[in-house]
Specification:
11 strands, Alpha/beta knot, six-stranded parallel sheet, alpha/beta, about 15% strand, about 290 residues, 2 domains, 60s Ribosomal Protein L30, Chain: A, single chain
Length: about 290
């Protein structure tokens, strides 16, 4: 068998598809579909998300996410993409030169590799909270960068799970995944709201039913110090963080067991929600 036929046979076995442009219909998930279209791709079944960079893709695979296809630079196929391709088995692997791939918006941030994956089914809040001691609850945090940063802090600083209200930015948006460095696949999470549970009243009731004391992170003077011994003595805490700017809703704060304000200096009145989450998680995750 001559070398051309050998090369073709290997590529077929590995499902390698070399491309010179991005017009293939199969590449639309990478090139032209927005986040909402990816989310609803298989509706009513869960849709698709895009993982960027080798490290993020590996973390997604390690937690059981099912890949659909890979898109990478040709030079990565036999080098840093080799182990990822082996874990993905028989899916298509699209390869192209860098000049072609740079036509995809934001591709440089992907560090040479993209993977389309099936969205996992959402677990119940009960399953996510089972055996958890410290959880974060995000109320209407709409910025995907902040959501990703909060997940990264949650993973690093001993949070056992994250719950989100339905108005939050999706943790599986490309930017949120990228900022989280793939920790959205490591920290158990789900939405606290559903057809039977509203927020805040129903969600608060659910958290109390699961045995959590609720902590509102808010700018109020009638608050408990973040290092208060009573807080650290609580067996289970749910740390509730609000949207950028407006913070937590008044109704949410009224329903919480504790309100905590992070002490500030130099006339600074507040921290960004992602920064505030890191301070709170470090303190309560001790």
């Amino acid at each position: 068998m001559d070398m051309i036929h050998v090369k073709t046979a290997i590529h077929k076995k590995m499902n390698k598809i070399e491309i010179t442009d991005l017009t293939l219909a199969e590449l639309q998930v990478y090139t032209s579909l927005n986040e909402a279209q990816l989310l609803h791709y298989y509706e009513p079944a869960p849709g698709i998300f895009i993982a960027e960079s080798p490290k993020v893709i590996e973390r997604a695979l390690e937690t059981g996410c099912e890949p659909i296809s890979l898109l990478m630079e040709q030079k990565d196929f036999d080098t840093r993409g080799k182990n990822i391709i082996a874990k993905c088995k028989s899916i298509p692997v699209y390869t192209a030169k860098l000049g072609v791939l740079e036509q995809i918006t934001g591709y440089k941030l992907a560090r040479g590799m993209l993977c389309a994956m099936h969205r996992p089914a959402m677990p119940s809040a009960e399953k996510v909270c089972k055996n958890a001691r410290r959880i974060a609850v995000l109320e209407n945090v709409v910025n995907p960068t902040n959501v990703g940063a909060i997940f990264r802090s949650a993973a690093a600083l001993n949070m056992d799970a994250v719950l989100l209200t339905s108005a939050c930015s999706d943790p599986l948006y490309r930017r949120a995944i990228r900022v989280s460095m793939g920790t959205v696949f490591q920290v158990p999470w789900t939405y606290i709201e559903n057809k039977n549970v509203s927020w805040p009243q129903g969600g608060m009731d659910l958290l109390h039913e699961y045995g959590f004391k609720t902590v509102a992170m808010a700018l109020r003077n009638d608050s408990v110090r973040i290092d208060d011994e009573k807080l650290h003595a609580e067996e289970k805490l749910a740390i509730i963080l609000g949207t950028e700017g407006d913070g937590l809703a008044a109704e949410t704060m009224a329903d919480c067991d504790y309100t905590v304000k992070i002490p500030m200096s130099h006339g600074v009145d507040s921290l960004n929600v992602a920064a505030a989450s890191a301070v709170a998680f470090w303190e309560f995750g001790k």
